[in-house]
Amino acid sequence: MAGLREKQKADRERRILQAAVTKFRADGYRAVRIEDLADMAEVSVGTVYNYYQTKGDILMATVAMEVEEVLDAGLTILTDPPEAVDDALLALIFAYYDHSLEYLTKEMWRTAMALAIEAPGTPNGRRYFELDQRLAAQMSDLVQVLQDRGTVRRDLDPRPLGVLLFNNLNQMFLEFVKDDDMTLDVLRRRVDAQTRPLAQLIVAGTAVH
Amino acid sequence: MAGLREKQKADRERRILQAAVTKFRADGYRAVRIEDLADMAEVSVGTVYNYYQTKGDILMATVAMEVEEVLDAGLTILTDPPEAVDDALLALIFAYYDHSLEYLTKEMWRTAMALAIEAPGTPNGRRYFELDQRLAAQMSDLVQVLQDRGTVRRDLDPRPLGVLLFNNLNQMFLEFVKDDDMTLDVLRRRVDAQTRPLAQLIVAGTAVH
DNA sequence: CTACAAAGATGAATGACTTCAACTTTTTTA
DNA sequence: TAAAAAAGTTGAAGTCATTCATCTTTGTAG
Questions:
Q1: Where do the H-state alpha helices sit in B42-84?
Q2: A102 phi and psi, to 5 degrees?
Q3: pLDDT for B12-50, tens place per residue?
Q4: N or C: which end of chain B has fewer CB within 10 A?
């Protein structure tokens, strides 16, 4: 199985992705030509296309790496979330935000989002959508955990509530990546201001009026 | 002022836009080449670029036309909205949806949205964002009208509420254009189901629990 | 070890958007 | 009205993503 050919293939793919992460970050997605990646990865242009179907495909592979990191970070929060409901929700949201710029720049995020909207039926569009869904599901899981603890009202369905929270944090993230001047700190503060009031509405044993 | 040159310029621009609306609808934005538009408008490729900076620019001009129609339709609702709060909100939302496919196809909407996200700092991105804001403002205006009438609770700020409603209808519209198989009717039903419960929460003189 | 088959790498060719230096048409000036 | 200036048009050339026929490398059978 692990013959020479297999090893070489794995190595080439790794080199191409490595080149992409480096060059996209350094020069911007748009400015980087496939030939630049090929040069850095020491393969030909044609070979890049043997491993990735399109330029957007290479970007999406990077997005997938990033989102895996984000999901991992989220899992850590899920295992032992803060006591207070608002703190717990914000802990997860901030974990997402804090791990969102590991491999990707704002420009890369914008391009990936644009790609997913423009061609939702392609493998890439579907892949992005699927990553979104996993994040929304993790948010729902957190709500479930809090409900099991008894800190979130029993009469709420964790799934749509998680989706609502995710839609909001995602929309706010979109505003963030659309504005090159907005800092992570401003993003955090805004979402904080939005989320705490909502959290008050869903805590158990409190009258809502 | 209205010399020969001016007339010719206006006429060329009109012909190019007309060609774009026709061809984009018939063959799809992606499939249409600038040369096709140039041929139909009886100008050269270079001339197309004297009137529009990029291919996306031509699309955005079409989007602007469409949104003007949508805003007009909305204004009609604003002058005499239905009595019930939920009916009034839905009347405006449906007016938007019903006028959204006059000039644009789903593919064209997707492309325009992708463009606006990918390049938010360009004239086109800003233009799209601005159109969005005008729609959100109109939704806020409707809430204001209803509040003035006394059917919406006094203690709510119409502006963020309008933005929330717009964000939701916009998000739902995004889902609609992402799915080529979804009909306008399904979109309407979904938004109806989302909006009526929310409307109940904001009507005046009703206890919320 | 040799020859054949399979897998994969290669880069020149293709196609589409965009640019720009040269050419036309319109307007202004005398 | 004729020349000069200004404005605008033109399409060939440039750039870059993507494809594909050909060549090279690796694996396998005798």
A1: 45-51, 55-79
A2: -65, -55
A3: 999 999 999 999 999 999 999 999 999 999 999 999 999
A4: N
From the CA of B47 to the C1' of D9: give the distance in Å: 6
From the CB of residue A10, how many other CB atoms can be counted at a distance below 10 Å? 11
In a shared domain, residues B70 and B120 = yes
Q: For residues A80 and A92, what is the distance between their CA atoms, to the nearest angstrom?
A: 11
- Residue with minimal CA–C1' distance to C25 is B5
Statement to judge: residues B110 and B29 lie in one domain = no
User: Which residues does chain B have within 8 Å of residue A110's beta carbon, measured at their own beta carbons?
Assistant: 117-120
CA-closest candidate to residue A164, choices A108, A72, A89: A89
Domain range for residue B42? 1-52
DSSP annotation of B117 reads H
- A154 domain-assigned: yes
Q: Which residues pair with B152 in a beta bridge?
A: B203
Residue tagged 């919406």 (tokens):
B152
Please provide the size of chain A in residues.
209
How many beta-carbon contacts under 8 Å exist across A and B? 39
